[in-house]
Amino acid sequence: MRNICLLVSYDGADYYGFQSQPGGNTVQDKLEHAILTLTGERLKVHGSGRTDAGVHALGQVVHFLTGSSIPAERWALALNARLPDDIVVRAAVEVPPEFHSRRCAVRKTYKYAITSCRFPDVFERKYVFHHPAPLRFEAMKEGLVHLLGEHDFSSFTSPLSTKPHHVRTVYEATLNVEPGGDGSIADGRGKASLIISGNGFLYNMVRIIAGTLMQVGEGKRKPEDIARILAAKDRSKAGPTAVPHGLTLMSVEYGPEWGIDWRAAMNRKR
């Protein structure tokens, strides 16, 4: 059996998330059906992580075991011909048998997109959360600093989390702001992208961080409250879970021992 690894992008607006559900209509279901029509194999694809209903991905990574002899460089085109338009396989590589897309990941990066313009952008409504009131961007940036490093993120995960512990390490957390079109950044109007990278994320963790950070931006909390919320290890101390459509899984990274070079794979002649 061969182990094939795929780099996948998808618009999650019309799906019940990545992981297969009893009702179907998930990204995993679509990928497995495309493989079935291509090779005749009923197999399971494993993702680097679950994305909830409505959440998007630019760089989701999946792997699966196959008996097919299709060359690695042919998988992307072959699967895209059998997938809906809102799911695209960007590249494929063959990896060692012991590789696992979730267990071998060393770094993941998410983006949560917010606009504080007075009016929503009709073309971005499925990908950016519209916050019609001004936001204190500098205060939000100050709050993010408290998330850096290794912490117990129990305050920033759903009570439904099934993980044995909630300790995670955040490597980077930034808020990038650009003009929004109907007001100045100084007035709290703009398009903000929360970019957060870590060794792993808990259920709803990024969305709860985004919801809490927006409360800092609204002036309902102080930047230093983020540290107190972390120390409390209590979900009720944090803010609301931000809506899913503003969240995108940007990338998943692996150690050099797996030999995954997506840039080379995407440039390889097919």
UniProtKB/TrEMBL annotation:
Homodimer. Its EC number is 5.4.99.12. Keywords: Isomerase, tRNA processing. GO terms for molecular function: RNA binding; tRNA pseudouridine(38-40) synthase activity. It comes from the Bacteria. Residues 8-101, 145-254 form the Pseudouridine synthase I TruA alpha/beta domain. The keyword Isomerase applies. The keyword tRNA processing applies. This is tRNA pseudouridine synthase A. NCBIfam families: hisT_truA. InterPro entries: PsdUridine_synth_cat_dom_sf, PsdUridine_synth_TruA, PsdUridine_synth_TruA_a/b_dom, PsdUridine_synth_TruA_C, TruA/RsuA/RluB/E/F_N.
